[in-house]
Amino acid sequence: MPPSLHLHGKRGVDLLHDPLLNKGTAFTDAERDTLGLRGLVPPYVTTQEQQLVRVYESYKRKTDELEKYIYLVSLQERNESLFYRLVLEHLEEMMPIIYTPTVGLACQRYGHIFRRPHGLYITRKEKGHIRAVLQNWPHADVRVIVITDGERILGLGDLGANGMGIPVGKLSLYTACAGVPPAQCLPVMLDVGTNNQSLLNDPLYIGTPQPRLRGPEFDEIVEEFVSAVQQLFPKACIQFEDFGNANAFRLLHQYRDKVCTFNDDIQGTAGVVLAGLLSSERLTGTKLVDERVLFLGAGEAGIGIGDLIVSAMMAGGLPQDAARRNCWFVDSKGLVVKSRTDLVEHKLRFAHDHAQAGTLLEAIESIKPTALIGVSGMAQTFTEDVVRAMGRLNKRPVIFALSNPTSKAECTAEQAYGWTEGRAVYASGSPFAPVTLNGKTHVPGQGNNSYIFPGVGLGVLASESSRVTDEMFDVAARTLASMVTESDLALGRVYPDLNRIREVSAAIAVAVAEVVFARGLTRLSRPADLAGHVAAAIYQPQYHDYV
Ligand code: NAD
C-alpha cells in the first residue's frame, strides 16, 4: 500500500470523510467490521467498477459544463481514487471540464460556486508566519506545488483569489496525466489582492478585497514562501502559474538557479509547441532550422516558446543570432523591431533590424513566415486575410491558435482548414472538434500543456532533482514528438491521442530523469532500471485493502 494510504489510526466516519482513504460503498465486510464502518455505509458491497457506472451516470445527467465541473470537484472531495479513475477513463471528455476551458468559467464564478476549501491561501496578513501556514497542510511529503497570484488566469486576466481553481485543476492533471500521487500535491493561492473591480464589488468574492500588492512587499512574501518551502518540503518542485507577465519572468529568473522551480506558462508551453513544430516537420517537409516563425503575442507563452525554439535550432546547428532571426513577434503595438523604444527586456532579444509593420497581415507579407503562432489572448485575430496569406505563402502553413479558453482562440479549426482548402497544419490551445471538408476529416491537435508538465513533474519527482532546466523541456518535447504516430499525422494531428497521456508522461519522465542524472542534479544514484523506478512512483487510482 502506498505510504499516503496508511490509515494513521483513522476509523469510522473519519475514514469516510478522508478523500484519500474513502472507498464509500466499496469498503469490504472485513474493513467494515474492523474499522468501525458497520452500519455507516449501505449494506451492499460494491466494486470500484460499479461505483464508476454510478458516478458516470450522475455526471452525464448534468447538461451544463459548470455543473459538470462542480460535480467532479465534489467527487474529488469525497473519493480521490474514484475521481481519478473516472477522469482517466473519460479523459478526452473530462479534461476540458477540470481544466481549460471550463475551469476558466469556474474561476470567474469561484465565489458563487464555492463549497469546500482546497489548497492553501497565503495573504499579506500571513507575512512573517508563512511557515506556520504551510505547517497546517496535512501532508508532509509534498513534491509538487502549484502557486498562482491569480493575476493572469488563462486568457481571462486578473481573477484574484478566484484563480485558486487553476492550481487545483493543474494538480489534478499532474495526477490524472502522469500519476503524481495526490497526497504529494499542494495548490497554493498567493492572495495579494486584485485590480478586478467587478470582483472587488462582489459581496461573494472569496479573496482579500483590496487592490493588488506590488513592489518590495510582494517580493518579500514570495521570498518567505520559497524559503519556507525549502525548510518544510525540501524535495518539492514549485511551479509558478498564471502570474502576470512582469512577475512571471522576474520570478523565474530569480529562482530558477536557486531552487527546484519552473513556470509552465513560459517553459511548459514552449515544450508543447516545440513538439508540435517537430511533428509538423513530418507533414510540411520543412526542417525546424528552416522554419520562420511569426508569433502574435510576445508575453510569457510567446517568448518562452521563442527561447526554446532558438535553443532547439542551435542544437540543430544554427548560430544563436540566426536562430533568433527565425523568430518574429507582433505584440499589441506592432512588429517587434529594433527601432521601437517601448520594448520590455524579455522582447529585446527578438527585436530585429526591420521596417515596422502596422498590422499582422503586413508583417506576414514582409516576413513570409512558415508558421504562425497565436499567443495573444485575442480572439479572431487570425482573420480570413491572415490565414489566406499564410496559405498563399506555404503549401502546408502551420497555424497554431493557442489562446485559451476557446472563446479567445485566434481562429477556429473550421476557419483555419476552410480558408486554406484543408492545407493548414492546425493546433489550438483549447480543444476543437474535428472538421470535415470535401469529404476529408481533419483532427485538430490540442497544444495542451498537459502533454508536457505532468511528465516533467513526474521525472523531477522520481529523480529528486534539485532544479528544472530548459534541457528538460527540450527532451520532453522531443519525446512527445516521437510518440506521434503515422496515423495521427494522417488525420492532421501533430500530437498523440490524449488517451495515451499516461504512456506519454511516463516516457517524458524517464527522459527528464536521464537529464537529471546525467547533469548531476540529484543526490540519488541512477537506478539500473530507470523506467521501472519511474513506474514505481506512479499513482494508480485503485483501491487497496486496509485489513
Ligand atoms: P501574456 O499576458 O504574458 O502575453 C500576451 C501577449 O499578447 C503580450 O505580449 C501582449 O502585448 C500581446 N497582445 C495583446 N493584445 C494583442 C493584440 N491585439 N495583438 C497582438 N498582440 C497582443 O500572456 P501569455 O501567458 O503569453 O498567454 C497568452 C495566451 O496564450 C493566453 O490566452 C493563454 O491562454 C494562451 N496560452 C496557451 C497555452 C497552450 O495552449 N498550451 C499555453 C500558455 C498560454
Report what the structure shows.
By secondary structure, the protein is an alpha/beta fold. The chain has helices spanning 12-16, 29-34, 48-61, 65-78, 80-89, 91-98, 102-108, 110-113, 130-135, 165-178, 197-200, 216-232, 245-255, 264-284, 300-315, 320-325, 345-348, 360-367, 384-393, 413-418, 453-463, 470-482, 486-490, 501-518, 530-536; strands at 120-123, 144-148, 185-191, 237-240, 261-263, 293-296, 327-331, 334-335, 371-374, 398-401, 425-428, 435-437, 440-442, 445-446. It is built from 25 helices and 14 strands. It has a seven-stranded mixed sheet with strand order 8-7-6-9-10-11-14, sandwiched between helices. The termini are close together. The structure holds nicotinamide-adenine-dinucleotide.
Remind me, CATH topology of the largest domain? Rossmann fold
Kindly give the count of domains.
3
> Span between N and C termini?
11 Å
Bulk shape: globular
- CATH class designation of the largest domain: Alpha Beta
- DSSP helix fraction: 40-55%
Mean pLDDT, rounded to whole units?
Answer: 96
Describe the strand arrangement of the main beta sheet, using strand numbers. Answer: 8-7-6-9-10-11-14
Q: In total, how many beta strands? A: 14
CATH 4th-level superfamily of the largest domain? Malic enzyme, N-terminal domain
CATH architecture of the largest domain: 3-Layer(aba) Sandwich
Please report the number of helical segments. Answer: 25
Radius of gyration, rounded? 23 Å
Strand content: 5-15%
Coarse structural class: alpha/beta
Low-confidence stretches: none
Q: What profile does the largest beta sheet have?
A: 7 strands, mixed
Bound ligands: nicotinamide-adenine-dinucleotide
